[in-house]
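Try this one yourself first.
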């Protein structure tokens, strides 16, 4: 997914990545994007792996009083898709941005209460304006 620049926003993904690179080991020719030197105990290079990310995420969630076991890396995929949908991004574009190959995305979308209520009201209106006879 392309990283947009959102000037002045604390949620700017471009700024976050640039900030993260300040902590990486940029001196080694073959260094990884998210690696840093940790000299606290003994000199070693640390790599920010998926497992480390999940561990740190769950640690922060627990400290905030949130059930951390309900969250994983996939939560971001689901959250991004739901946020894009609620922002009005067409479903086909969300699928393309997230590399969704099937309609499984429909299972993961969180439908806001306002849209669910609007849909229920549309059904009620249809029942009232088109009474069915038996």
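Now uncover the answer:
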């Amino acid at each position: 997914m392309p990283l947009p620049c959102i000037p002045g926003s604390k949620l700017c993904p471009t700024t976050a990545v640039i900030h993260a690179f300040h902590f990486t080991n940029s001196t080694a020719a073959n260094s990884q994007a998210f690696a840093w030197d940790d000299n606290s105990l003994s000199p070693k290079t640390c790599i920010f792996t998926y497992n480390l990310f999940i561990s740190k995420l769950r640690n922060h969630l627990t400290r905030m009083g949130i059930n951390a076991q309900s969250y994983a890396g996939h939560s971001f995929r689901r959250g991004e898709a739901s946020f894009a949908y609620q922002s009005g991004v067409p479903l086909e574009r969300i699928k393309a941005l997230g590399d969704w190959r099937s309609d499984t995305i429909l299972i993961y979308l969180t439908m806001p209460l306002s849209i669910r209520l609007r849909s229920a009201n549309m059904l009620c209106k249809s029942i009232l304006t088109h009474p069915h006879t038996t």
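Discussion: The longest strand covers residues 35-38. Residues 10-48 form one domain.
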